[in-house]
């Protein structure tokens, strides 16, 4: 096991302590595993709360800050946080204009955010929820009924976050988040399995020289296993899988994402192929983000997320953001 | 071989095409492998040029932009760029106030940048050079006479870049770059070897359950091989190796860097341990940057770079920067 850790049991709190030390603009409640903007609750602003199992960093804690999330709840590795964390987060960020829960579609997350919404509403906090389910690879998976939520979560958090920062009311922030979900699709490919600290060995068996198309971010099975493909072929397969389900009539936002252990030089090379396919298919690209953003521990591989973006979504995408994982304009 | 590539021969130009597509604020000369700020040459500004072997991304191409480098030259994987690339870069960014070459201390890079400086000066461009040699692990290594240049390169490029952006003259930019070099030390640890595309297998043999202390960014041998250590122990060893050579009398900038394949959750956990050691040793930390910045392809591992920073260096560190790899304030 080649891990830079102390013991598996403390990986999540250790990382939260390290985040706190590096980012004084965040308040990190290590005991309860909640990361909050230091200036929360922000007067007259809708609060955005997300979270999920750890192991997908910078998602979600790395997207807390001005212009994006107000708070994120960190579960154990690949395990949903609990409702108590989410209600704490909601209480910490509610400024009286309500809170939006951004939930990736995994059964545990859905149940726990549902319960937390009920609890928060009992405490007088207005809560709306949006479910992210952008992964076209499979319907119904190891931890999911319906589609899994993956890369589009970044687009939802950024765009809804920008609207909230501008003072949009909860209904508007929620509607924009839904628009992003409906306009986004993803497809991922694993070149290696990931290893959870608790298990200490790969979560599934992927022989050298093979890859898995349509992988989930917890190593859930994909569509098919194939002999190793070139970057060119992987881009064709990934983009075409997305476009089979999303036929953009205008420009898209593109996220060319690494699964955690794929070097940036490979991701940029892959981006060249993704842009080639999109050009061949007649899809104009308005903005491209390349990097390891929605990850799966030390998995090697990549995913492509496209979001059809009208002018308003593009404007909100470009709006200033200041988080550990995504930052521009401030 | 689990690589997201087409063929080994095109890895570098493929990545440059992908960078060009993602970053319209850069001009990427794929044929000559030079990345330049689109607005270069910037009137009345000293030009900053760096570069080196590829495989260390985002270093250097990912640090081109406002407030940092004006241009970067990309060599083949782990191979110095050639003088022609450097003179092209110098000519592209020179606004008549001279150009600073920032050179990591590897024999090929040093020779080629020296030759390029002579050629550029023959063309009437005033050139100064600064050599980065911050790695305390070993003196004289596989590709180096003296100390290797690693993580401090990021500090040099950011701080000298900020000074140049403010209009400082070449002598001042060079002096600041030298101050950063003299004030910075690094130490790196490999948990796995890296695999170059051309070779297709690990560049050295590191059995599971062992690590190498003092590794270079091309897999050059370090100080010693040991059975796997905890994050706590690795932080002790790394920080103490740095502090044995740099005894800061004031606050430091800290770079807690991943070697490419180490997930962010592990790097943040490692940062908690680095901060603990620094606190125990009485070293105050002014700023911390955590992430995969000066990498070695798909190597798992980490490095620590400390830079003793006076108020002026801190101010220049905090100054706005807009590059693919490092961005804030704009």
UniProtKB/TrEMBL annotation, chains A, B:
Under what name is this protein listed? Answer: Dihydroxyacetone kinase subunit DhaK
Which superkingdom does the taxonomy of this entry point to?
A: Bacteria
Name of the gene this protein is made from = dhaK
Q: Which Pfam families match?
A: Dak1
Q: What is the lineage of its organism?
A: Bacteria, Bacillati, Actinomycetota, Actinomycetes, Kitasatosporales
Which GO-annotated molecular functions does the record name?
A: kinase activity
Q: Which NCBIfam families match?
A: dhaK1
* Matches recorded under InterPro entries: DhaK_1, DhaK_dom, Dihydroxyacetone_Kinase
User: What's in the keyword line of the UniProt record?
Assistant: Kinase, Transferase
The protein's organism comes out as Streptomyces synnematoformans
Q: Does the keyword Transmembrane helix apply?
A: no
Q: Where is the DhaK domain?
A: 7-328
């Amino acid at each position: 096991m080649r891990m830079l850790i102390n013991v598996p049991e403390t990986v999540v709190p250790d990382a939260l302590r390290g985040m706190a030390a590096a980012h004084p603009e965040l308040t990190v409640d290590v005991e309860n595993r909640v990361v909050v903007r230091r200036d929360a609750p922000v007067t007259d602003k809708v609060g955005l709360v997300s979270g999920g199992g750890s192991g997908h960093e910078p998602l979600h804690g790395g997207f807390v800050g001005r212009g994006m999330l107000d708070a994120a709840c960190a579960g154990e590795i690949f395990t949903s946080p609990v409702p108590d964390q989410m209600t704490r987060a909601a209480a910490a960020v509610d400024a009286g204009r309500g809170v939006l829960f951004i939930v990736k579609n995994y059964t545990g997350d859905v149940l726990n955010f549902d319960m937390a919404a009920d609890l928060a509403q009992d405490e007088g906090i207005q809560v709306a929820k949006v479910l992210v389910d952008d992964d076209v690879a499979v319907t119904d998976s190891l931890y999911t009924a319906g589609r899994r939520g993956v890369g589009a979560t970044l687009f939802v958090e950024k765009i809804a976050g920008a609207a909230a920062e501008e003072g949009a009311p909860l209904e508007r922030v929620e509607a924009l988040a839904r628009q992003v979900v409906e306009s986004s699709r993803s497809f991922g490919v694993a070149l290696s399995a990931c290893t959870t600290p608790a298990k200490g060995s790969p979560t599934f068996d992927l022989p050298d020289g093979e890859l898995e198309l349509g992988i989930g971010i917890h190593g859930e099975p994909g569509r098919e296993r194939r002999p190793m493909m070139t970057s060119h072929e992987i881009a064709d397969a990934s983009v075409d899988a997305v476009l089979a389900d999303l036929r953009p009539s205008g420009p898209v936002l593109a996220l060319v994402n690494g699964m955690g252990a794929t070097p940036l030089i490979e991701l940029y090379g892959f981006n060249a192929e993704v842009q080639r396919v999109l050009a061949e298919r007649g899809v104009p690209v308005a903005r491209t983000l390349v990097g390891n953003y929605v990850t799966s521990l030390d998995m090697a591989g990549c995913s492509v997320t496209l979001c059809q973006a009208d002018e308003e979504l593009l404007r909100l995408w470009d709006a200033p953001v200041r988080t550990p994982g995504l930052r521009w304009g401030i």
